[in-house]
Specification:
133 residues, alpha+beta, 4 helices, 7 strands
Length: 133
């Protein structure tokens, strides 16, 4: 008896609820989307496939004039500008909360879909409050 092998669906690097929240510029919807879905994060170095604890090295932008650090997050990997490193990670709400808790003092601002179609920004403190709500 030969069984059909189920094809695995490819992993989608997007959060539709986050895209919708950005389109309407609704902070409450943005908070909900961040608490209940993944976020696409640009990676300087992708994680090791054989080590689930290795989520890679997150890429951040440091303004050469001011030294300010920005974290760029995306609702969809398709919205990441080609000028950024090619790797992306799909990170959970828990990961985002832990990352902001660890690096929130260094990060000046967080940009969502910085190149569009519906860019938005928030402070790390506002996002921590949204994730903790």
């Amino acid at each position: 008896m030969a069984g059909k092998k189920r094809e695995k669906q490819p992993l989608e690097f997007r959060n539709t609820a986050l895209a919708d929240a950005l389109q309407t510029q609704d902070m409450a919807a943005l908070a909900f989307a961040l608490r209940h879905g993944p976020t696409v994060v640009p990676l300087l170095r992708p994680g090791a496939r054989d080590d689930p604890r290795d989520s890679g090295e997150v890429w951040t932008y440091r303004d050469p004039a001011t030294g300010d650090v920005a974290l760029l997050l995306f609702s969809d990997a398709a919205n990441k500008p080609a000028t950024l490193p090619p790797g992306v990670g799909l990170q959970s709400p828990g990961w985002l909360r832990a990352f902001l808790g660890t690096y929130g003092e260094e990060i000046t601002t967080v940009f969502f879909d910085i190149a569009g179609p519906h860019a938005m920004q928030a402070s790390p403190a506002d996002l921590i409050a949204a994730l903790d709500a």
